Amino acid sequence: MIVIDTHVLVWWLSDRSRLSKEALRAVEDALAGDGVAASSISAWEVALLVDKGKLDLSMDLFQWLKVADEIVNFRFVPVDHILAARSVVVPDFHPDPADRIIVSLARNLGAPLVTADEKIRRYPHVRTIW
């Protein structure tokens, strides 16, 4: 199982050329294995970006989310009360709440996080792939 960051989700579904070779291989291997997870906070981030005109999807947002939901071995993981609380106590991490939740999900699942985000990749308390 791997967890993917929001931008990896967007690139994976719309422009795989933006993913590193290692990131794409990790996603493909996980899809063929024990799965790929994204936090439901990523759906929120995508919706915000679309609403602000900072992200253009090739289809309606809700259709895009439906397409993602239908991918075999991919799932959105809801932000429950435990994950929300754990995101507050992530040690020595920057304050972005979405990143804190995504990092907490990876830590909670004991899974590597696929991300190009340098702040997250430098964070020693989560394994990353890029």
Write the element-wise H/E pattern from the N-terminal end onward: EHHEHHEHHEHE
CATH structural class: Alpha Beta
How much beta, percentage-wise? Answer: 5-15%
- Report the CATH architecture: 3-Layer(aba) Sandwich
Going across the biggest sheet, name each strand in turn. 3-2-1-4-5
| CATH topology group | Rossmann fold
Question: Please, how many domains?
Answer: 1
Compact summary:
With 130 residues, this protein is α/β, with parallel strands linked by helices.
Account of the protein in words:
The chain has 130 residues and is an alpha/beta fold. The chain has one domain (2-129): Rossmann fold (3-Layer(aba) Sandwich). 52% of the residues lie in helices and 12% in strands. The chain is built from seven helices and five strands, in the order βααβααβααβαβ. It has a five-stranded parallel beta sheet with strand order 3-2-1-4-5.
Question: Topology of this protein?
Answer:
Blueprint: E1 2-4, H1 6-14, H2 21-32, E2 36-39, H3 40-51, H4 61-69, E3 74-77, H5 81-88, H6 97-109, E4 113-114, H7 118-121, E5 128-129
Parallel strand pairs: 1-2, 1-4, 2-3, 4-5
Helix pairs in contact: 1-3, 5-6
